[in-house]
Amino acid sequence: MRSSADIIQAEATDKALTMPEPRFKMDDGWRVFHPNPSRPDFHVPPGSVDAHCHVFGPGNSFPYAPTRKYTPCDAPKEKLWQLRDHLGFARNVIVQASCHGTDNAALVDALESSEGMARGVCVLAPDVATEELEAMHRAGVRGVRFNFVKRLVDALPRDRLLALTEKIAPLGWHIVIYFEAHDLPELYGFFASLPTTVIVDHMGRPDVTRGTDAPEFDLFVRLLAENENIWTKVSCPDRLSQTGPPDYADVVPFGRHLVERFPDRVLWGTDWPHPNLKSHMPDDGKLVDFIPKIATTPKRQQQLLVDNPMRLYWPEEFER
Ligand code: 0GY
Q1: Residue 95 is part of a domain; what is its CATH number?
Q2: pTM of model > 0.90
């Protein structure tokens, strides 16, 4: 007869066999996404799109890039689909995060298992082959991200970025740009020269303590006013706010200003699983409750959450 010690040992062995050791350990102090987000009070319109979110790994199947500047917790596609359903969204746009470098395998895997309900934005190496781009297009990739945030990446030189712009042209992809407000003066001319639709992440990351009439935000608004091909995501109050959750009150004037001024060039996303947040981990339900504060009428909400992202990512299904 087996003793209880033997049984415990056998169970431990079974567990070790079924649950391989994680190959990657998340960074010390890494904040894991909210385990149990609230159900939002705000009901998003039918067909809404979460137009900025990520998948991370799992690292054992989709290793994190050797060049990464952080190692996150795993945030697999199944969790993302659960969150989508819980919040009342229908679709996702998944953006390749810097921890996966230019290996878009986790992104493509998520797109392929989404039954057409997710599109993607990838990150490319300068020498990417045309066949690779075409395969990503078939999987649902519709854009490339140029990241200028120095703590996340060493940005490619501009001539390389322009060469990539030419490579994606035959596919009709757009460009997503991520930068911090203090770098905009230097990057302004480059952004204005991009020939595709261009989408700026997280409102160009304003310093919200400086108010909407500060010169930095003014410059950002000018970028959109002068370039009709440039859009922005009115996302990440959790990343920008100093007053904090659950209201993120200091971010409201920025989001509202952009939604009112450029109603057909704004997108919204959760930014799940919220990489690199230091102050707190947002409750995704409360982030959804932020939406009606910046898009204050049903018409604006429909544009922000359905019409604009559908026009860009699912034009074949958009019939307005
Ligand atoms: C950030 C936010 C993000 C990180 C990344 O590529 C990335 O690692 O995108 C984000 O997407 O919001 O500032 O760390």
Answers
A1: 3.20.20.140
A2: yes
